[in-house]
Hints:
This protein is an alpha/beta fold. The chain has a single domain, classed as Rossmann fold (3-Layer(aba) Sandwich), CATH 3.40.50.2300. It is 44% helix and 17% strand. It has helices at residues 19-31, 42-52, 68-76, 97-106, 118-134, and strands at 11-15, 35-39, 56-59, 88-92, 110-113. A five-stranded parallel sheet has the order 2-1-3-4-5, sandwiched between helices. Helix 2 packs parallel to helix 3. It is globular.
Amino acid sequence: MQPSLPLAGLNILVVDDDDDSRFYITTVLEADGANVMTVASVAAALELLSKLQPDICVCDIAMPGEDGYSLIRKVRRMQPDRVGKVPAIALTAYGDSEDQLRALEAGFQTHVAKPVDPGELVTIVADLVSTFQRV
């Protein structure tokens, strides 16, 4: 009997302007059972959010044009019964304590510095979704 995958059946939106980062994150999350949709910009993420209604969003901070802080602020202003309360992870190269605080204040539930270990990323996503399902 094969063990169940920790992210089986989860719909995850990944927002990152870097092709390699999107590929890496997608590969890690799909290997553990997630359905992953990726976009490269805030505008594309906002367009897709209401259609996809993801279980969780993993978002880069530094992107050209609008950044991840702008995205999460806009998401938090959306209807709470739809996508406004989607759990979100800031996955970024900006890893100091000020950056962590800024991400949390903007509306992310957690802040993870790149590069992230694949097992750690899966655990963080699974734990965050589990926390939100209990609420």
